[in-house]
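STRUCTURE:
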């Protein structure tokens, strides 16, 4: 049991470390890829308009200007941040959002991703009502989150919609169950319930 406890703790620390490092690593990868992309194409663009500004090496290739890609990307990000704070641009973004949500084919993917992200962190946050839900055998319960208090649109007025996340994954299953088959979790936070589920029950709620 001692070895099992140690392995569980190590597994917990591994996934916690992964959760911390993954966003950082992905961000660094995206930024570096953007820098490299700009460094690769910028000399060609400058050479078109100012051939004498970008020299060529012995093989005839345009010489990259060190740090220029970094400067351009930083200026571009600042410009986007400044523009996005303007009222007119905000209206334009809202208009683009409306167009994407009404475009056949695209709207399904765009709306699904947008709603899913907003359910976690946006104004439409949904995963804040943790419950135990019985969808298998009697006395077998899953941890889920109420996303809709009624499923009347599907002819199930006495049912609630519950999202049940999978362990060690970002996927899950949506169930519509009678309200009598759920038990609200009032002693733990939604974040702890999600963490406990995603970790496969390894996380200690009393830490």
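SEQUENCE:
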């Amino acid at each position: 049991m001692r070895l099992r406890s140690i392995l569980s703790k190590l597994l917990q620390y591994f996934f916690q470390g992964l959760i911390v490092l993954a966003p950082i690593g992905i961000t660094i990868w995206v930024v570096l890829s953007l820098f490299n992309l700009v460094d690769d194409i910028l000399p060609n663009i400058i050479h078109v308009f100012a051939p004498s500004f970008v020299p060529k090496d012995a093989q005839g290739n345009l010489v990259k200007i060190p740090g220029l890609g970094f400067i351009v990307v930083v200026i571009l990000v600042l410009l986007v941040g400044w523009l996005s704070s303007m009222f007119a641009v905000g209206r334009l973004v809202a208009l683009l959002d409306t167009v994407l949500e009404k475009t056949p084919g695209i709207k399904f993917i765009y709306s699904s991703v947008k709603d899913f992200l907003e359910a976690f962190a946006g104004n439409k946050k949904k995963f804040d009502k943790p419950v135990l839900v019985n969808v298998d055998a009697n006395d077998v319960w899953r941890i889920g989150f109420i996303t809709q208090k009624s499923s009347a649109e599907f002819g199930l007025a006495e049912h609630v919609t519950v999202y049940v996340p999978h362990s060690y994954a970002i996927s899950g299953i949506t169930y519509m169950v009678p309200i009598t088959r759920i038990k609200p979790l009032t002693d733990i936070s939604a974040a702890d319930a999600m963490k406990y589920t995603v970790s496969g029950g390894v996380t200690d709620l009393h830490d």
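REMARK: The mean pLDDT is 75.
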